[in-house]
UniProtKB/TrEMBL annotation:
SMART domains: eIF-5a. Transmembrane segments: none annotated. Residues 1-12 have a biased composition (Basic and acidic residues). Residues 85-154 form the Translation initiation factor 5A C-terminal domain. Residues 1-21 are annotated as: Disordered. Keywords: Hypusine, Initiation factor, Protein biosynthesis. GO terms for biological process: positive regulation of translational elongation; positive regulation of translational termination; translational elongation. One of its GO terms (molecular function) is ribosome binding. Belongs to the eIF-5A family. This is Eukaryotic translation initiation factor 5A. eIF-5A seems to be the only eukaryotic protein to have a hypusine residue which is a post-translational modification of a lysine by the addition of a butylamino group. Translation factor that promotes translation elongation and termination, particularly upon ribosome stalling at specific amino acid sequence contexts. Binds between the exit (E) and peptidyl (P) site of the ribosome and promotes rescue of stalled ribosome: specifically required for efficient translation of polyproline-containing peptides as well as other motifs that stall the ribosome. Acts as ribosome quality control (RQC) cofactor by joining the RQC complex to facilitate peptidyl transfer during CAT tailing step.
Length: 160
């Protein structure tokens, strides 16, 4: 037994991992995968036959869920790929600040003020126009791997 004191600095969050492993051969179209460190939605999967050196290979074509860029990867079907934990949460829009941030109401009644307006032009117009017309808007926020982005808007009626 040693009588030295050990101090460990933890830089982790609440223990929830940003990704989980999944066998490449089980990932399907419309599923999620991490390619080049980015969370992506799979739009196409093709599997090649086993060659003389063993593994069948899966060719993934996927779209980054935050910036819309197309990425591709080829992985042996028996190997594990990282799959991001993707969450979608709905928040009610309270306010839009002049610097492009939105103020959202969470289910617990608190406000969330760290999200920017969407970069997608159509979605941005829908949010701004709806807000100026005094409509009650619910914004869907997608989060994965420490990133968050507004990706949909719903009109739930006008304010009284």
């Amino acid at each position: 037994m040693s009588d030295e004191e050990h101090h460990f600095e933890s830089k982790a969050d609440a223990g929830a991992s940003k990704t989980y492993p999944q066998q490449a051969g089980t990932i399907r179209k419309n599923g999620y995968i991490v390619i080049k460190g980015r969370p992506c939605k799979v739009v196409e999967v093709s599997t090649s036959k086993t060659g003389k050196h063993g593994h069948a290979k899966c060719h993934f074509v996927a779209i980054d869920i935050f910036n819309g860029k197309k990425l591709e990867d080829i992985v042996p079907s028996s190997h594990n790929c990282d799959v991001p934990h993707v969450n979608r949460t709905d928040y009610q829009l309270i306010d839009i600040s002049e610097d492009g941030f939105v103020s959202l109401l969470t289910e617990s009644g608190n406000t969330k003020d760290d999200l920017r307006l969407p970069t997608d032009e159509a979605l941005l117009k829908q949010v701004k126009d709806g807000f100026q017309e005094g409509k009650d808007l619910v914004l869907s926020v997608m989060s994965a791997m420490g990133e968050e982005q507004i990706n949909a808007v719903k009109d739930i009626g006008t304010k009284n």
